[in-house]
Amino acid sequence: MRFDDIFAALQKGIDNGEVRALDPSVILVMGTSTLFNYERMVRLHQVDPVTTPLSAVIDMILAGCVKPVGDE
After folding, report:
1. Distance between CA 8 and CA 25 in Å, rounded?
2. Residue 17: left if φ>0, alpha if ψ -120 to 50, beta else—which one?
3. What is the pTM of this model?
């Protein structure tokens, strides 16, 4: 998936009220920097990918993007 596709999906989620009303570029930077830092920490053996799997990190990123219930 290309960044343009991810950007468009984020914008659609914002427009639909499913994603926090932030600039999609900011959301992309937050997500990608988290993923790059996770990869670096795994590579340097600072994080165990078995006990802290990539899927958990992705879930955390996505949870941070979801518009909170009652947030108008």
Report:
1. 10
2. left
3. 0.78
Joined together, the tokens standing for residue 47 give 């994080």
Q: How many angstroms separate the Cα of 26 from the Cα of each of 6, 22, 35, 61?
A: 12, 7, 14, 12
Higher pLDDT, 67 or 35: 35
The span from the first CA to the last CA of the chain, in angstroms, equals 30
- Cβ contacts of 28 within 8 Å, gap of 6 or more: 3, 6, 7, 10
Classified as helix, coil or strand, 23 is coil
Asked whether 4 and 26 are in contact (CB, 8 A), the reply is no
